[in-house]
């Protein structure tokens, strides 16, 4: 089946800039065969950009690779010329896992402390920009539009003085041991 991806279709050579092949399993040798097979398609030493789907559909633990091989898999693909490597549905799986963890912690374990320990504090410690999320929802754009329409000082500004986002810059929260924690730094409360 891989040979169908390698066979150069003369009429398409000038318009193919990327070559993407799906495989049933993450086998480096298959990727090597594809990379070697398209070598020279455009001329000596030339080949299209190669793409590899690091698919979540693969059962990576049952792939036959060791942890060390999985650790170097992306770099090994890069050495073969796979310049575009991606995980389809990574966000879907990440969101599902974290939604499951959040629900379990809110309902069964720690109430809001679970959210604060599992999400808000790590966002702050790692400098994740969505900690203050209003700008990501378009609040700035809406405020600027309303300012244009009604002038400065209108009472419904999303990002105004009373914005909950301002809480994050006002004061560092007390941690579990009574210490003040902000962006990884600690000081006595």
Task: Give the overall pLDDT as a whole number.
Answer: 78
Strand content: 5-15%
Q: What gross morphology would you assign?
A: flat
Query: How many distinct folded domains?
Result: 3
Annotation field: number of helices? 7
Intertermini distance: 65 Å
How many extended strands? 5
* Radius of gyration, in angstroms, nearest whole number: 25 Å
- The unreliable regions are 178-189
Strand order of the largest sheet: 1-2-3
What is the helix fraction of residues, given as a range?
A: 40-55%
For the largest beta-sheet, the strand count, sense and barrel status come to: 3 strands, parallel
H-E string:
HEHEHEHHHHEE
Estimated structural class: alpha/beta
Walkthrough of the structure:
Strands 1-2-3 form a 3-stranded parallel beta sheet. Strands 4-5 form a two-stranded antiparallel ribbon. Helix 2 packs parallel to helix 3 and helix 4 crosses helix 5. It folds into 3 domains: 87 residues, no CATH class; 41 residues, no CATH class; 58 residues, no CATH class. With 189 residues, the protein is α/β, with parallel strands linked by helices. It is flat, with a radius of gyration of 25 Å. Strand 2, helix 3 and strand 3 form a beta-alpha-beta unit. The relative contact order is 0.07.
